[in-house]
Specification:
The protein is built from 16 helices and 20 strands. It has about 425 residues and is α/β, with parallel strands linked by helices. It has 2 domains: about 210 residues, Aldehyde Dehydrogenase, Chain A, domain 1 (3-Layer(aba) Sandwich), CATH 3.40.605.10; about 180 residues, Aldehyde Dehydrogenase, Chain A, domain 2 (3-Layer(aba) Sandwich), CATH 3.40.309.10. The strands form 5 sheets. A 7-stranded mixed beta sheet has the order 4-3-8-7-6-9-10, sandwiched between helices. Strands 13-14-15-12-11-16-17 form a 7-stranded mixed beta sheet, sandwiched between helices. Helix 2 runs antiparallel to helix 4.
Length: about 425
């Protein structure tokens, strides 16, 4: 981005990533993206957007893209045409006959460490008929760049309204840009943790606008000892492969990635189950080539020995170049901070009930293996909504859904008008 120098420094231009093009002056960007399409304003569930998202999903699901970035396969599946049609249908139905309309201009501030999360919220906001400006991090990785390439490739066959109403831009830590975009938007969506939310909230919104924020969250995994012992080899391997996806995509840095594993059941059997589980995990990680690089290995040691120094872990075991396992002093010692990719503290519980007093409001996802629905419903009821927004099987922790962090996201991106 170019900045004019002088007595009153002023942002001149933003790097436009989608639609790809030359740098754009901030005023021009806001004016152009706010203009209504010539053939009619966007509507909730707009077919022009839906067709574009479906084409984009097909591009992500091509073998060449899916092999390079497996996480984009999940994104493509989320945006497949049938799912888009279902979401659009729900969006168009207002409660008790209310009319539904887009909120207006949505400004998205996604995180850098999970560099495809912005696509989910942007896609739902666009499908709800909103005009969008997304700030893409300057540190965006290969998956985000592949997303931008796919989006731009799909524009050739898209309705012109898509390019006119949707923008993805890159700029540095220029407060003036964030302040201006915040003042212009009707809804601001902020991902990335407590610090990011607090920083962005320094910039006021117009009185009629609101924030949708996603602060720091932490997640865990629970494995039924009895169910593991009763499962056959293929079922165990499938569970471990799902757990590996949850943990190793995004280097265990996603809010839904498990930070600790709770073995639920007989204490004597749990040590056997843990050894079998970790042996399978080592095999899966090796088969996928997910070794830990030297910098991450240092982070693993810093995080692991730090837990021991704090009195939260009693034993640390390093497994070649794949992962580190720790013995927690108890479930209450489960870490909520990131310890490094492939760092797995373990604790044994007699039942899920022992987790109830441990869970906090910041805890987001519990991924599980071997529990039936009634057990999980009773557990959620015992929590009473004060923690955990999602309880999902191994392999689904990172599967985005329209309900996220307790929000019905499509509903957040629309306005309701009642006529009595």
């Amino acid at each position: 981005m170019t900045v004019l120098t002088g007595s009153a420094p002023k942002v001149a231009q933003l790097d436009t990533r989608f639609p790809a093009g030359p740098p754009t002056p901030l005023d021009e960007l806001i004016a152009s993206v706010s203009t209504q399409p010539e053939d009619g304003r966007l509507r909730v569930g707009d077919e022009r957007i839906g067709d574009f998202l479906a084409a984009f999903a097909r591009r992500l699901l091509t073998p060449a893209v899916a092999r390079r970035f497996p996480e984009l396969g999940s994104l493509g599946f989320f945006l497949r045409r049938n799912e888009i049609a279902r979401v659009a249908s729900r969006l168009q139905e207002g409660p008790e006959g209310a009319l539904v309309f887009p909120r207006g201009l949505v400004f998205h501030v996604p995180p850098a460490n999970v560099d495809t999360i912005f696509v989910y919220s942007w896609a739902l906001a666009a499908l709800a008929g909103n005009h969008n400006i997304v700030r893409v991090s300057q540190r965006a990785g290969g998956a985000a760049l592949a997303v931008l390439d796919a989006l731009n490739d799909c524009l050739a066959d898209a309705h012109p309204a898509v390019a006119q109403t949707q923008r993805m831009v890159t700029y540095g830590h220029e407060d003036a840009v964030t302040e201006r975009l915040s003042a212009e938007c009707d809804l601001r969506v902020v991902w990335g943790g407590d610090r990011s939310v607090t920083e962005v909230r320094r910039f006021p919104l117009r009185p009629s606008a609101r924030d949708l924020t996603f602060p720091d969250r932490s997640s865990f995994a629970a494995l039924s000892v009895a169910a593991w012992l009763a499962a056959d080899g293929p079922a165990r391997r499938a569970a471990v492969e799902g757990f590996a996806n949850d943990a190793y995509w995004f280097d265990q840095g996603a809010c839904a990635s498990p930070r600790a594993v709770f073995l639920v059941g007989d204490a004597a059997d749990s040590s056997v189950v843990r050894r079998e589980f970790l042996a399978l995990l080592a095999d899966v990680v090796a088969a996928r080539g997910w070794g830990v690089d030297p910098a991450m290995a240092v982070q693993q040691q810093v995080g692991s020995y730090g837990m021991a120094a704090d009195g939260d872990a009693t034993r640390i075991e390093f497994s070649d170049n794949a992962f580190v396992s720790l013995d927690l002093t108890g479930p209450e010692a489960a870490p909520r901070r990131w310890l490094g990719a492939g760092t797995f503290p373990f604790a044994t519980l007699a039942s899920l009930d022992e987790l109830v007093p441990v869970i906090r409001r910041q805890d987001q996802t519990l991924s599980y293996f071997g529990f039936d629905r009634s057990e999980l419903v009773d557990f959620a009821a015992a929590l009473g909504g004060r923690g955990l927004d999602r309880i999902v099987p191994f392999g689904s922790a990172l599967s985005f859904s329209r309900v996220w962090d307790g929000y019905d996201l499509p509903a957040e991106f629309r306005r309701l008008v009642t006529v009595a």
